[in-house]
Amino acid sequence: MSGLVAVDGVRDGDGRVGEFWRGLGLPGLIDVHTHFMPERVMAKVWAYFDAAGPLVGRHWPIAYRFEEDERLAVLRGFGVRAFTSMIYPHKPGMARWLNGWAADFAARTPDCLRTATFFPEDGVAAYVAEELAGGARVFKAHVQVGGYDPTDPVLDPVWGVLAEAGVPVVVHCGSGPVPGKHTGPEPIARVLARHPRLRLVVAHMGMPEYVDFLELAARYPRVCLDTTMALTDFVEQAAPFPRAERGRLLDVGDRVLFGSDFPNIPYGYAHALEVLARLELGEEWLRAVCYGNGARLFGVG
């Protein structure tokens, strides 16, 4: 099955999304990796993808390029019961503003898990504490786009308070689609060595260093992997998941979480689910990945 689709308003297989989760006997889906941002920020992100910017590295059409209300309607139409607003700053002074927007968005969007972010800068520990006190349920850190070292001393108290609070932090720390100065398993492994109770969710399964991040998950019982874009035809062309290692996803099956990268994906949403079934790891594993693990992690009924 091809994951490539036209993006002129007709996406491949949208109608199959509901069939997928109903066939597993699930009440819907939990998607831990979706992007909702201030409109002008989202427009800049899309422009970067359209230009195949240096952190993208290839042609990348946006399949769900709609206004915010329509994007929400599409996601809910898929049966997604809970999702996130993955925001991320690329410079100092941006995170507080993004956090304010995300808090407002979650307040008016009850099925969105309130999301927050941070950047290595003066005052970061204080505003992360404020977000936790205000009810943030998940954080996002983007080492690649931010271009920062996660072991920066100014972030040490941030990782510490997140570990103590037990609030998940989704971190883009793998080197895909293009390596960054501080991407790869080594920097974030040093963070985990200092904060072993951190509820780290490795975005994109750590693509392309899948095996290294599987080993981190085996070593640290609170480390999770999100499936975002991993195993799709689009990614397998450039960064294939080692076939011999696929069975190890069963070993950490209670800590694999479905993520899509909606709306910024170059294929239909159904493809991100169907490639998981293609692994043939069993329906119990699929039910856990697509709903049960996220429900337990975030306390979703």
TrEMBL record:
CDD domains, alphabetized: metallo-dependent_hydrolases
Q: Which InterPro entries match?
A: ACMSD, Amidohydro-rel, Metal_Hydrolase
Occurrences of domain Amidohydrolase-related (ranges):
30-299
Give a yes or no for keyword Magnesium in this entry.
Answer: no
Pfam families, sorted? Amidohydro_2
Sorted UniProt keywords: Lyase
- This chain's protein is named Amidohydrolase
Originating species: Streptomyces yunnanensis
